Amino acid sequence: MSNRSANAGYDRHITVFSTEGRLFQVEYAFKAISNAGLTSVGVRGKDSVVIATQKKVPDKLIDASTVTHVFQITPLIGCVMTGLDPDGRNQVMRARSEAAEFKYKFGYDITPDLLAKRMANVNQVCTQKAFMRPLGVSMILIGWDTERGPQLFKTDPAGYFAGYRATAAGAKHQEAFNYLEKKLKGDEQLSTEDTVELAISTLSSVLAANFKAQDLEVAIVTKDNPKFHVLTTEEIDAELTRIAEKD
Amino acid sequence: MTSIGTGYDLSVSTYSPDGRVFQVEYAQKAVDNSGTAIGLRVKDGVVLAVEKIKHSRLLVPHANRRIMTAGKHIGVATAGWMSDTRHLVKRVRDEARDYRSTYKVDIPAKIIAERTGMYAQAYTLYTAARPFGVSTIIGTVDADGPQLYMIEPSGQYVGYRGCAAGKGKQVAKTEIEKLNLDQMTAREAIKEAARIIYAAHDDSKDKLFELELSWVCAESNGLHAHVPQNLLDEAIQHAERSLNDDEDDDEMEGDDE
Asked: Does the keyword Hydrolase apply (chain A) (predicted)?
């Protein structure tokens, strides 16, 4: 790669811009997310927001119940972490700590948008300090905002964050984005059932796989039940059955 | 895929162009060069076993333990750098002690695994430090039953029914997969663990080694303890016999005296 020799001096230190104004270490951190091999999606509907990700257990000696990428941060907010797992857990711990501190300082629960902004700001610090590397994870955050309803955010190693109607992260995120854009062309506000269906069908489509309940992790927040809730294998099974029967 | 970092591998705070952190991968190699350590989670307990490679006959037998205890109920077996091991195990012990002091109950497996994992991960973030060159196998019996976790140098950890780390990892894993762990008892497991360590041991590379075997089960009163001498001797005999029997793999399961 002739690219590498031309930019050899700039790649290594994240505080240094390359000649084209790029931060290579941040871009490499994004590659680390794709390398992890998993894809996650999040979809926001009218009264609900859903996240879904693959559950891959590579070794049959592993206790599958301990493998998870979906984490609860507060009673009303949760996330799915895509990328390097240890970095993901680090971020989750940080998020939980930030949420708890917010509640202590201000007396009310942090909202998803503020938490996303805070995590993004923390990520940005890593892109400016030489002594630490950006975390190789993307956090898709969902939650119920008591004033604004269902919320979906995504943060990335660059320190960027945005609210989404639907988003994806991981190995096949580009394909997932394309699929979601096609499906959500207009301004439709999906029902809870359709939101779950879209999240799962996005994964099935871009990964060209027919999932069984144990190959997926799904979590949801709805108007009727605003608590962050990770679906059990039985509940996922029920959803898959419903989707299959619809076709 | 080339595994040489060339330039991107000098510090742990650098990604390579394909998104890898080479220092962490190299730390894993340090683990792969050490004596084998395995953990088995069975019906009524957890068994840990280590191939303690001795570099001299002058070493006192049963001294210089590689399997350590944290709290009273947690067994920690490691593969990798011994000095890093001591640092990590000290942390595990501190976490267990502080948890007990705050909450008045013994630290559950899931939580000690998480804290150890997070601690190891923290050392993969900064230029000033390097990752631990240790894979840590934690075994205990808590309110959810027997638990086994392995924490890798990257800080990655998952729960296992059986796990292995170190030189003979591949051989050990193949053997472990053949076992019916969910139906096995701790007594049976110690024999299997001994056999697997002996099988994974490569005599041509390191002649001298000592088997270390420990467990957490009802017989040890829920505490982590090295297996009593008589059971250890039985297990070693079983292991040596299996080696000499040209590995009759089929009749290994539940081979009771």
From this structure: yes
